[in-house]
Structures are given as structure tokens and as C-alpha cells.
């Protein structure tokens, strides 16, 4: 995730990969107990980001419908429009829909799950009725 862009000589330019800043800002907001102003979000992010950079990312995320905001003094405080699990599930679904072979993608995904995640997935696919059936045994 910390992939850096390289200049013509192959040296890292110090710029973050596309989407890395947005992901970092979202993570900071999901980790907060309340909406954050741009300055508060900036203080929770690693590195030495400019206030205007963080404000730009917050505005872009808001424009995409990923954040909600309300007035806080002369500016805004921002919060995620959806929880992290909903956001991640939507991204997974979107990626699955982009693939040309859903079965191959799902097969590869399941084959690379940890044993614990595979068991969890089986339980989730069985649904709540399966839990009740197990209790009656």
C-alpha cells in the first residue's frame, strides 16, 4: 500500500500512490469517535502532510459521496457516510463484477483464505437457520 511513484531515474519521488491518501483519510475517520475537521484529520495521518492537501482529499471524498459533513466553526467536520465493512464489501463486489470469470475469481479468493476465514464464510453462507438447526441437535 505504500507504493511510491518513481521519477525518471527510478528513484522514489516521495509521492504517495494514487488512492493511498484517500485510504489513509478514511481510516482516520473510521477510527475516530466523532466527525473530524481537516486539522484533526491531518494530525491523525502519518507523515508531514499540508493542511490544504488533507482538505482537498476530504472535499474529494465528500464530492464522491463517501463522507458527510456539517458546519464546525468556519469550516466543516467530516465523517464517513458508511462504515468500513460496508465500504470494503462494496469495493470487493465492484472488483468481482469487473472480472471476466467470476467463478475463477471466487475460486482463487476462497482458496487463499485462512482456515478461520474459510470457516467464517461457511457459517455466513449457511445463514442463521443453520445455527438454529445446530442448536436443536
What does this protein look like?
This protein has 137 residues and is of the alpha+beta class. The protein has 7 helices and 5 strands. It is 55% helix and 16% strand. The strands form 2 sheets. The chain has a 3-stranded antiparallel beta sheet. Strands 1-2 form a two-stranded antiparallel sheet. Helix 2 crosses helix 3. The termini are far apart. The N terminus is likely disordered.
Strand order of the largest sheet: 3-5-4
Gap between N and C termini, in Å?
Answer: 46 Å
Secondary-structure element order, N to C: EEHEHHEEHHHH
Low-confidence stretches: 1-12
The coarse overall form would be elongated
Helical fraction equals: 55-70%
Relative strand content: 15-25%
Concise account of the structure shown:
This protein is an alpha+beta fold. It has helices at 20-30, 38-44, 51-63, 84-98, 102-111, 115-126, 128-135; strands at 4-6, 12-16, 36-37, 67-72, 75-80.
Keywords:
disordered N terminus; alpha+beta; two-stranded antiparallel ribbon; elongated; 137 residues; single chain; 5 strands
List the helices and strands and how they pair.
Blueprint: E1 4-6, E2 12-16, H1 20-30, E3 36-37, H2 38-44, H3 51-63, E4 67-72, E5 75-80, H4 84-98, H5 102-111, H6 115-126, H7 128-135
Antiparallel strand pairs: 1-2, 3-5, 4-5
Helix pairs in contact: 2-3
Amino acid at each position: 500500500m505504500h507504493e511510491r511513484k518513481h521519477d525518471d531515474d527510478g528513484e522514489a519521488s516521495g509521492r504517495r500512490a494514487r488512492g493511498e491518501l484517500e485510504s489513509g483519510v478514511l481510516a482516520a475517520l473510521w477510527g475516530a469517535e466523532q466527525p473530524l475537521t481537516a486539522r484533526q484529520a491531518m494530525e491523525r495521518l502519518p507523515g508531514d502532510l499540508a493542511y490544504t492537501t488533507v482538505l482537498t482529499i476530504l472535499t474529494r471524498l465528500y464530492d464522491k459521496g463517501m463522507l458527510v459533513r456539517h458546519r464546525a466553526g468556519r469550516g466543516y467536520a467530516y465523517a464517513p457516510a458508511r462504515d468500513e465493512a460496508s465500504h470494503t464489501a462494496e469495493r470487493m463486489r465492484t472488483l468481482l463484477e469487473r472480472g471476466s470469470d467470476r467463478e475463477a475469481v471466487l475460486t482463487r479468493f476462497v482458496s487463499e483464505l485462512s482456515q478461520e476465514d474459510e470457516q467464517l464464510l461457511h457459517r455466513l453462507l449457511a445463514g442463521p437457520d443453520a445455527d438454529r438447526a445446530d442448536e436443536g441437535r
